[in-house]
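User: Can you model how nickel (II) ion sits in this protein?
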Amino acid sequence: MDQPRAAARLRILLGQLGRRSAGAVIAHPTSGAVPPAGFHPQQFQYTRDNSVLTLEQRQFYEDNGFLVIKKLVSDADIECFRNEFERICRKEVEPMRLVVMRDVTIAKSEYVPSQKMITKVQDFQEDEELFRYCTLPEVLKYVECFTGPNIMAMHTMLINKPPDSGKKTSCHPLHQDLHYFPFRPSNNIVCAWTAMEHIDRNNGCLAVLPGTHKSSLKPHHYPQWEEGVNGIFHGIEDDDENNDQVHLVVEKGDTVFFHPLLIHGSGRNKTQGFRKGVWELQA
Ligand SMILES: O=C(O)CCC(=O)C(=O)O
Ligand code: NI
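Assistant: Here's the modeled complex, given as structure tokens:
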């Protein structure tokens, strides 16, 4: 509404509220109506108007479909999540509705409850400690840049990538997360993925194909790998190992925000350690 009309409307309203004279009312645009300095509305499709992201960060996400924020989650919080995960593995806590995925390569006979058995816990909304990740103000502050306000945690996971069996079993083929989710619109969804330790190509870092968030949802299927596949993962059909993947080397606490159509995956874990990352999908 333009300012003279807004002032006139305000005068009428104040009059109706019983004020005797509402003559000298001046209407000021609210903060919501004033674009922040440097804001260019026509350029942005995947990020929201607020003052959290710099113009460069916004443009980077718009162009590439992901953004890495260094050292976002504290070491102390990550230690709490790690401890809670270990308690779950030892069955000291059994949160309701938690889905626990076991390593396909470990024989049933080796069953000793430990983190070596468990590759992933998922849907941890009933676990107060793990769910704290989804409520961390420092994470939500960035999530809101992509989803807007009114944020909902739709899917949660802590991934404990095991050492590879030599058959690519620890590889997560290139995929789009939207394949797994029955809700839309995709531009109101963001994935937040926080490294729980140093992660590079040796222990299976995230690999992304920048700019692919602008593409559509592709058909997914089991990859045609000679070594065999891990039956829990789908990948895109045109999974070409010689494409322009960018490998995201990250430190503990670094957080990757990415669009659900961004094609991404993670490589094999060539170490003997269990590579950990916690992530959630917010809409
Ligand atoms: O290996 C990872 O941590 C990423 C896994 C992933 O992209 C997924 O679960 O959708
Ligand atoms: Ni994914």
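A couple of observations from the model: Confidence is low (pLDDT under 50) at residues 18-23, 25-33. The CA atoms of residues 167 and 227 lie 5 Å apart.
User: Helpful, thanks.
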